[in-house]
Amino acid sequence: MPEGPSIVILREEAAGFAGRRVVHVRGNSREPIQRMAGCRLRALRSWGKHFLLEFDGFSVRLHFMLFGSYRIDERREAAPRLALGFDGGGELNFYACSVKFIDQPLDEVYDWSADVMNDAWDPARARRKLRARPQALAADALLDQQVFSGVGNIIKNEVLHRIRVHPESRVGALSARKLGELVAQAREYSFDFLRWKKAHVLRKHYQVHTRTVCPRDGQRLAYRKHLGLARRRAFFCERCQRLYE
């Protein structure tokens, strides 16, 4: 599942289509996608893992789920969920993703201050939301898109290792300083992720995700296939990541 930084890359790569008119629409989505035909794409935006196409009077939300992908000015052999052709040439093709129309203004639908990649990101608000969830596991809290929109499982595992917190720690047991580190690193690591992914070296920088040995102390890493309410994979070091209970 693409995480927030990957959607930011898509938004940047597709930025040249903003202001252009859609001349043909195809795809196997059950949504009324022909509604976009003849419309001008006003803007491309992102919120966490959501890629947003903004038109006059409506928007389209794309979520890539577990196996979604996209191609710009090229096609896969698979049938697209949504494909848009533009005046002057060029096309956007989306595969194995969720397509949903949004009729309200996006500023009424999305809390931009929750998006760790957005200029409007508000760390103080994130801390308040976390303090209201004292029994939540740190691993689940990082994956809560209403608190950390865009954070996915890779970022979760790496952030918790970076700040030396066990994924099963309770949020309410974290000190104010440690809670601040969690919030700060959710954003900082997301931008590291973005920089490394653009340079095609992201996997080289994994410290614990899909690894077997902790690079900090040489301890064999613990692995849980389904951890927390989110039931996501967890890689962590039981020696250097403290369990706060």
What this model shows, in words?
The protein has helices spanning 4-13, 106-109, 123-131, 138-143, 153-162, 176-198, and strands at residues 22-26, 43-47, 50-55, 58-63, 69-72, 82-86, 91-95, 98-102, 222-227, 232-236. It folds into 2 domains: 4-109, N-terminal domain of MutM-like DNA repair proteins, CATH 3.20.190.10; 116-236, Orthogonal Bundle (Helicase, Ruva Protein, domain 3). The mean pLDDT is 97. A hairpin with a 2-residue loop joins strand 3 and strand 4. The strands form 3 sheets. It has a 4-stranded antiparallel beta sheet, with no helix packed on it. Strands 2-3-4-8 form a 4-stranded antiparallel beta sheet, covered by helices on one side. Strands 9-10 form a two-stranded antiparallel sheet. The radius of gyration is 20 Å and the shape is elongated. The longest helix is centred in the last third of the chain and has 23 residues, at 176-198. It is of the alpha+beta class and 245 residues long. The chain is built from 6 helices and 10 strands. Helix 1 (4-13) packs parallel to helix 6 (176-198), helix 3 (123-131) crosses helix 6 and helix 5 crosses helix 6 (176-198). Pfam families: Fapy_DNA_glyco, H2TH. Keywords: DNA damage, DNA repair, DNA-binding, Glycosidase, Hydrolase, Lyase, Multifunctional enzyme. Residues 2-94 form the Formamidopyrimidine-DNA glycosylase catalytic domain.
